[in-house]
């Protein structure tokens, strides 16, 4: 084991399940705080389906790729601010109040989005939602981590990741439910207000984090909560450990409210923790997960499935696999360990991204040709096609790059079709003959391989890199720096998310979908070596001993050699 950390009991998962009858209070805390994860996941998933219908309602959005990216990424920009200030709010006012504030912002944003009369107002609502999501993304796992017994801490924080993926799955179900309803996307975005209201009500019935109460000198309140969380034979040891941790903090002349970045970087344990925590968040995003979640239906269309409903239905399958993967992580996180799970996950991501690269490259280079005869039938020829010198060289991909639409052959989608101007009248004329209309991707006989690649990517990513960064960041920092460091790690996550989500569609246009996925695969490959060298194993380490582990651990450059355990103090 890396760093000489004691192994966690392999029965941690079973013990977590037994809490439902042994100590339901702990599960109640975890589930109530985990609704923040549900909101996080719902917003990630719902925009992918809503975007298909927003494009239909606002033609300016349909014509401008940057505006589609802005609708997705303004929420991410809001989340960056929410995560950045969330660390300070968590330390100053407590974890519970931070979660309530996050819910309030999410509620306001949902109402604004549902009523938005224009793309500009929609963007304002997305910012409010982003602020709430950013705060919840760090406050919820932090609250769960600090209110969980050590032996099941990883499983309960992984529960938050399950609720994130559960929120994504729920969003696709709701997207499908409202595809035929008037106002489609308004319902999809507005429904998010409901879980936010529920969580506000639940959080008023729950206590503050006992570790935060200890830091603020409210020991009696903290002891009362700890006695509800821990068995009688363990609670006194936990109280003593917390008291020692706070005593160390008192010796520090600067309080956490006066911490500077320079001071953080000068503190060896914090520097090592930040390197691991922020690095994991970086690689989580730059392996491309949120492009899959934000743009999943669009990716399905790029693979050759034209219908909005078909794209949403196939995206629902990948979202369901994501939720299933997070259930697996609850079992494996305390049995296999954080580091091993992350490594297995990244290796699988590299393989599945390679499959996606090969499949989309095949689709791009073997798309159906454009037929001049088929095109003339519409009397609405694509301007670029009518002016070209070599019409026989045109295929579907070239047609779409000219910002036109491709109407597939009625008898066989892979046969030559028509390249025509992209507008509602031409789309309706194409559909009248029961022919498929393409504006995002082309018909392909290997489209099913892209769906398989997406499914494999989700299956590998979700149990490992989907969960491990959040679990590690909730437990790797010393108590007195936990809020501010968690905020920095969440900010890293959201800044990375913003870069990836804002650039994905533009990259697919500029270099093609295949090479975009290849870039993600290359980052995942580098991530394997990062985890091997910089990330310690925190499985089974009491939170009060994490600081000692980081103090004694060295950077493991020779990762192929087994590290020697640190000397006991």
Automatic annotation (TrEMBL):
Does the record's keyword annotation contain Membrane? yes
| A GO molecular-function descriptor | myo-inositol:proton symporter activity
What range(s) does the Major facilitator superfamily (MFS) profile domain occupy?
A: 29-539
**This protein's UniProt keywords:** Membrane, Symport, Transmembrane, Transmembrane helix, Transport
Transmembrane annotation, as ranges: 29-54, 66-88, 100-117, 123-144, 156-178, 184-206, 273-296, 311-334, 341-360, 447-472, 484-505, 511-535
Compartments (UniProt record): Membrane
**A Pfam family reported for this protein in Swiss-Prot or TrEMBL:** Sugar_tr
InterPro entries, alphabetized: MFS_dom, MFS_sugar_transport-like, MFS_trans_sf, Myo-inositol_Transporter, Sugar/inositol_transpt, Sugar_transporter_CS
* SUPFAM superfamilies named among the record's database cross-references: MFS general substrate transporter
User: Membrane topology per the record?
Assistant: Multi-pass membrane protein
Cellular component GO terms, alphabetical: plasma membrane
Q: Does the keyword Manganese apply?
A: no
Report the family membership.
Belongs to the major facilitator superfamily. Sugar transporter (TC 2.A.1.1) family.
Which NCBIfam families is this protein grouped with?
Answer: SP (TIGR00879)
Would you tell me the protein name for this molecule? Answer: Major facilitator superfamily (MFS) profile domain-containing protein
């Amino acid at each position: 084991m890396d760093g000489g950390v004691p192994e966690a009991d392999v029965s941690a998962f079973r013990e977590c399940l037994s809490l439902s009858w042994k100590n339901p209070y702990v599960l109640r805390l975890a589930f109530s705080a985990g609704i923040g994860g549900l909101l996080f996941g719902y917003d990630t998933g719902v925009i992918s389906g809503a975007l298909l219908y927003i494009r239909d309602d606002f033609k300016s959005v349909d014509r401008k790729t940057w505006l589609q990216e802005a609708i997705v990424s303004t929420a991410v920009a809001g989340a960056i601010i929410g995560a950045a200030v969330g660390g300070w709010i968590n330390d100053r006012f407590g974890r519970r109040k931070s979660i309530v504030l996050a819910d309030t912002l999410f509620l306001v944003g949902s109402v604004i989005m549902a009523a938005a009369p224009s793309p500009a107002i929609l963007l304002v609502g997305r910012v409010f939602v982003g602020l709430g999501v950013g705060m919840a993304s760090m406050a919820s796992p932090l609250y769960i981590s600090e209110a969980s017994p050590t032996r099941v801490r990883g499983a309960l924080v992984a529960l938050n990741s399950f609720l994130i993926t559960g929120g994504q799955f729920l969003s696709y179900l709701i997207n499908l439910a409202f595809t035929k309803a008037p106002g489609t996307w308004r319902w999809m975005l507005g429904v998010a207000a409901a879980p936010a209201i529920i969580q506000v009500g639940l959080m008023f019935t729950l206590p503050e984090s006992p570790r935060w109460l200890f830091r603020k000198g409210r020991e009696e309140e903290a002891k009362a909560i700890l006695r509800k969380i821990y068995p009688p034979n363990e609670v006194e040891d936990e109280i003593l450990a917390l008291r020692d941790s706070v005593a160390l903090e008192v010796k520090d002349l600067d309080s956490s409210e006066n911490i500077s970045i320079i001071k953080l970087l000068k503190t060896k344990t914090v520097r090592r923790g930040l390197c691991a925590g922020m690095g994991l968040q970086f690689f989580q995003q730059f392996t491309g997960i949120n492009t899959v979640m934000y743009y999943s239906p669009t990716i399905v269309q790029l693979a050759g499935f034209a219908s909005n409903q078909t794209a949403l239905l196939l995206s629902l399958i990948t979202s369901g696999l994501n939720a299933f993967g997070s259930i697996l992580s609850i079992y494996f996180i305390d049995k296999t360990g954080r580091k091993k799970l992350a490594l297995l996950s990244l290796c699988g991501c590299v393989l599945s991204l390679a499959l996606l690269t090969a499949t989309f490259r095949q689709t791009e280079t073997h798309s159906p040709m454009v037929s001049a005869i088929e095109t003339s039938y519409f009397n609405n020829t694509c301007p670029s096609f009518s002016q070209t010198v070599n019409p026989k060289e045109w295929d579907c991909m070239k047609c779409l790059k000219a910002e036109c639409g491709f109407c597939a052959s009625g008898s066989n989608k892979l046969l030559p079709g028509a390249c025509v101007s992209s507008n509602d009248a031409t789309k309706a004329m194409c559909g009248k003959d029961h022919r498929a209309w393409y504006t995002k991707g082309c018909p392909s006989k290997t489209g099913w391989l892209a769906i398989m690649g997406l499914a494999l990517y989700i299956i590998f990513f979700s149990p490992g890199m989907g969960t491990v960064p959040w679990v590690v960041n909730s437990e790797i920092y010393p108590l007195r720096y936990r809020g501010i460091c968690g905020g920095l790690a969440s900010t890293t996550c959201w800044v990375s998310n913003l870069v990836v989500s804002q650039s994905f569609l533009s990259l697919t246009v500029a270099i093609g979908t295949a090479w975009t996925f290849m870039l993600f695969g290359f980052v995942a490959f580098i991530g394997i070596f990062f985890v091997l060298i910089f990330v310690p194993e925190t499985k089974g380490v009491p939170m009060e001993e994490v600081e000692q582990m980081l103090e004694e651990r060295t950077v493991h450059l020779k990762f192929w050699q087994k590290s020697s355990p640190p000397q006991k103090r």
